[in-house]
Amino acid sequence: MERSSIKNEEQYEALREEGYSKEKAARIANTNNASKKGGKASKYEERTKSELYEQAKKIGIEGRSKMDKEDLIRALRKH
């Protein structure tokens, strides 16, 4: 995806810093209400394992109960 097609460049950059792929960051930054969302969540490394687990549960990552904090971060970033 071309960078010139990003609707919310600031949000895109924040998501990339968070570890999102280029495609996923662009998809989120290009939503109709992109200026109203994103970029304000704490970085995964700053969250507790429990918070990461709940996020993984919310989005349906399998095998999360056996993951340590680093595994959860990797899984969340890949999703």
From TrEMBL:
Residues 17-26 have a biased composition (Basic and acidic residues). Transmembrane segments: none annotated. InterPro entries: DUF7218, Rho-like_N, Rho_N_sf. Residues 48-78 form the Rho termination factor-like N-terminal domain. Residues 17-46 are annotated as: Disordered. GO terms for biological process: DNA-templated transcription termination. It comes from the Bacteria. Gene3D superfamilies: 1.10.720.10. This is Rho termination factor N-terminal domain-containing protein.
